[in-house]
Amino acid sequence: MSMKTKRLFATAATLAAACVLAACSPDAGSQSSASATNAGNDAAGNDTTGNKASNCTNTITKKDLPVVTFWGWYPNMQLVVDNFNKQNNEVQVCWTNVGQGGDEYDKFQTAISAGTGAPDVIMIEADRIPTFQIQKALVDIKNYGFDAVKANYSDGAWKDVSIGGAVYGVPVDGGPMAMIYRKDIFDKYKITPPKTWAEYEQAAQKVKDAGGPLFGDLGANVPAVMMALQIQKGASPYTYDPAQPESIGIALNDQASKDVLDYWGSLAKKGLVGTQDQFTPEYISGVVNGKYATYISAAWAPGYLTGAGVGKGKDTGKWAVAPLPQWDSASPVQVNWGGSAFSVTSQAKNPELAAKAAYGLYADDESLKDGWTNQIIFPLNLKALNSPEFVDLKVNFFDGQQANKEVYVPAANAYTGMTYSPFGQYYFDSMTKQISAVIDGSVTGAQAADKIQEDVVNYAKEQGFTVK
């Protein structure tokens, strides 16, 4: 292994340890018992189970079948695994929850470094797949039954879990983006849902001029939102192919990226939107109390907001959702925030059986329905995504609005996917720093984009990448 390649792996190891938002909502990995979360860990919190099938959280009843070990943190994973095992007569799944998001990634990274201790199948957020793929920690599952399940998901969903021509995960849930808004505020100020970002600014100015609340929020701690809106305008942040793992294209200061940062910086400077970090008690308090007219977020947001106390009590019946405003209404572009996949690790004892489990978990009708009715995940399996029951659902949070039919399903079906990088967390950290600078007025949006480009390019070169 070359020194350059070693540096690449070291980069991924560092990034894998960083904690991120959960796949579908910030609290999606909560467990009812600490024993489930800590199963298989020693006093220091290190994983000690390896690929052993003797430390399952679930009970395996078909003991004569081969067993695939699995790490995952969805709230209803027990039901999902039990459903798979009941219906499968070729393989059984032994599930352990070793932690959510960054906690799981830490343990996986330890197992990668040690060369042992990883599960056969692991739940990973889509934007983290390149971080582990570059370490050769994941298996391309294209030769293990991909053709039989390809039609179960959209091309965009597959692109998010693919690098080059290889597929490194089975998509499970996603986050097509939209504009959640307060019906009472829109009615009071005679605002109709803006179809473009230009109309969004005009509506924000109208509400401010009338003495109304902030129209939205520019949160420095949600850089993935800014990236999505830049992509919506035409940006392509990264070009990366595992066939050339030490080479990457980085374009973070193109005109589209600059325009979007300038746009939001201008809204903040004019006092049309707030600048509060999101996913904080202060922000949620503002949402509940009508401080913001809109919330730009993903399809999992209603579940998160409900869990945070939004839409209850005096706040009931005040929320609706509309399609995400467009930069160019003549050429609409749908974008995504969040989502996870089930990946086969390179330590899998039998990659073919592991892939069978990855394809089959969260793919049966009962698990899918439980996911979108009780757990508030947004399913990517087309059996659920396009089912009349899901499409026609009257969403309680939105006062009975058929949000899936009107907004989220069309957005998901039109989403074409994106290319992530092996150092996405560093990019997000740089973006957060520069959004903060835009907010405090020390740089313009265009200047911020140039600084992000310089920062990330220098970092990539330091880690041994050739930047195209």
TrEMBL record:
Keywords: Signal. InterPro entries: Bact_solute-bd_prot1, SBP. The keyword Heme does not apply. The keyword Signal applies. Residues 1-22 form the signal peptide. Pfam families: SBP_bac_1. Residues 31-56 are annotated as: Disordered. Residues 32-51 have a biased composition (Low complexity). It comes from the Bacteria. This is Carbohydrate ABC transporter substrate-binding protein, CUT1 family. It comes from Microbispora rosea. The lineage of its organism: Bacteria, Bacillati, Actinomycetota, Actinomycetes, Streptosporangiales.
